[in-house]
Amino acid sequence: xxSVKTLRVEAGAxxxxxxxxxxxxxxxxxxxxxxxxxxxxxxxGASLCxxxxxxxxxxxxxxxxxxxxxxxxxxxxxxxxADADEPPTEMAIALTQVPDLPFEGEGGTHGGYDYDAYHxxxxxxxxxxxxxxxxxxxxxxxxxxxxxxxAEFDLDADEWPEEPVDLPEPVVEFSTKxxxxxxxxxxxxxDEIAGxxxxxxxxxxxxxVNEVVTERAEEAGFTHEDGKIECLYVDGEVxxxxxxxxxxxxxxxxxxxxxxxxxxxxYYKRADPEWVEAVSAAKREADERGVADWRELxxxxxxxxxxxxxxxxxxxxxxxxxxxxxxxxxDAPPLADALDAFEA
Length: 344
Fold this sequence. Notes:
Elements: E1 5-11, E2 19-25, H1 44-61, E3 68-72, E4 78-79, E5 90-95, H2 115-122, E6 126-127, E7 130-138, H3 144-147, E8 165-176, E9 184-185, H4 187-194, H5 199-219, E10 223-234, E11 237-241, E12 251-254, E13 257-259, H6 262-271, H7 273-289, H8 307-325, H9 335-340
Antiparallel strand pairs: 1-2, 2-5, 3-4, 3-5, 6-10, 7-8, 7-10, 8-9, 10-11, 10-12, 12-13
């Protein structure tokens, strides 16, 4: 399904009913939309599955509809997270339909993608082809810094400072989900792409998820900076899908330091700037040429992480999941010690 987790279908979705499936969380990771990177991060999949299940169960307790059904234990049974005998790597979910999204090429509407065909095939039971992004602050590395000015958010600054900036109120944005390059959309364009799903309901659901995750983050000593959700639409209802509130989907800070895959992004910006720039150049060229797959145009490949940073990244995910869930699932050093390795 993605570069970091796969989907095992146990009963396919139809136009009339949801199906059943299992997310298998791997130790792969991705940055800058590259796809699978050269290294594996030991235990990362279990950390994300554990944290995602924890958040889904909190959301369900708060009345937020989701596609979550439980985690798989060592015997293959679907159980609540509290009943798992070890950190899970598989999550049981309800499945919706994900039709193909045809690419029309340069000159087509909506970036050259045929969303009318997508929705015609879905017939009212589908994964909404949007990512709904919510922001409580603007950390270093946020794409918002390139796209919008501080004054738009009632901030007294002409330029973004080189430090995280808290926003007066949470901001919700919409970006594409299935295009080769993510595009941020106007609210009107997002409404068209969403199909039958209400853009107001998507907005409200994102704000509710943000509230629940932010509350837990503060309880655990984190600052919740931003995140995203994906949603399915069925029987006139929008539900939270994919995974929510993990260190891959969201950005958190702990004692002023980033706790998410942002630490790896920032490492590559410092240590492998040629590859980072080649990715940006390939994306620009793909836009100019009206082609979908920018990776074929990229002339560089990422270097592997140093061994010590592979372990440090694994420690950040494990220690962060322990702290966030309030349970020692993993044998990991204190979170502050794990983060120290990225400042050496």
